[in-house]
């Protein structure tokens, strides 16, 4: 690869002229690895392009670089990002990662409530999936749609799959569950909020205002762990205490008080 700018985007009907090149590379790549990518016809790849359910990578000069497409199963309960393939001339430059990220985003956009899964024998793909939020699962957690499993018939390992009653194979199953991810995000947000409130309460307990308006603060070095919002809340609290006390004392005596904040 020499001085090429690579563009990763959603495929369109204008890209169908790449279909034969893509399917030929899928087949030759599977043979070279001795493992399987379910064989797809150029017509099937073209259909995915026409439906806007594929991602393609090309150079600014129009050379094909990589491809991946979306398949929906089980009445759209499951979505698979399938057929990831990269032109051998462009491998080792992060193209696969960019395509996987783009197809993942497209899947979330088109099927926001669907579980996204994948079967792979490649460690590189497993690492990319993990970074996107996928987790390894058993085959029983994948779709039971027969049409999906029929696609494995062209794989060289299909006999292994059937001998294991479709419970295991050489591929690793990985799954992204949007419901579980939402629960995890909500739990993390609740834990973060509780921790911030606990830290703020601790600060409030350390800060005491005497009847004469003198403010005392324990000589303790606080670490805010980089939490700027918590620091801002602490400053607002301190300002509130100071100004409130100043108004009360000033109204009672008609004199302004001086305050000192001791660190």
From TrEMBL:
InterPro entries assigned to the protein according to its UniProt record, in alphabetical order: Acyl_CoA_acyltransferase, GNAT_dom
Record-linked Gene3D superfamilies: 3.40.630.30
Transmembrane segments: none
GO molecular function, one term: acyltransferase activity, transferring groups other than amino-acyl groups
UniProt cross-references to PROSITE patterns, sorted A to Z: GNAT
CDD domains in the cross-refs: NAT_SF
Pfam family, one: Acetyltransf_1
Name by which UniProt lists this protein: GNAT family N-acetyltransferase
């Amino acid at each position: 690869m020499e001085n090429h700018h690579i563009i990763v985007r959603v495929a369109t009907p204008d890209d169908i002229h790449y279909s034969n090149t893509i399917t030929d590379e899928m087949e030759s790549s599977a043979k070279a690895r001795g493992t399987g990518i379910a064989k797809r016809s150029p017509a099937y790849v073209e259909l995915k392009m026409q439906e806007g359910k594929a991602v393609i990578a090309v150079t600014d000069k129009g050379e094909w670089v990589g491809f991946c497409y979306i398949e929906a199963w089980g009445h759209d309960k499951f979505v698979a990002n399938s057929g990831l393939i990269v032109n051998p001339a462009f491998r080792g430059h992060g193209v696969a990662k960019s395509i996987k990220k783009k197809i993942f985003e497209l899947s979330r956009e088109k099927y926001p409530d669907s579980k996204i899964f994948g079967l792979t024998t490649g460690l590189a793909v497993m690492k990319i999936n993990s970074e996107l939020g996928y987790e390894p699962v058993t085959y029983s957690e994948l779709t039971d749609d027969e049409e999906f499993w029929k696609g494995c018939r062209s794989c060289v390992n299909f006999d292994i799959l059937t001998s294991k009653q479709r419970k295991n194979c050489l591929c690793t199953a990985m799954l992204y569950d949007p419901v579980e991810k939402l629960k995890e995000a909500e739990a993390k947000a609740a834990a973060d909020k509780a921790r911030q409130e606990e830290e703020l309460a601790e600060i409030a307990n350390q800060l005491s205002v005497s009847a004469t308006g003198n403010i005392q603060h324990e000589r303790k070095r606080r670490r805010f762990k980089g939490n700027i919002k918590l620091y801002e809340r602490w400053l607002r609290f301190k300002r509130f205490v100071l100004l409130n006390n100043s108004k009360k004392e000033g109204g009672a005596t008609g004199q302004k008080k001086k305050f000192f904040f001791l660190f």
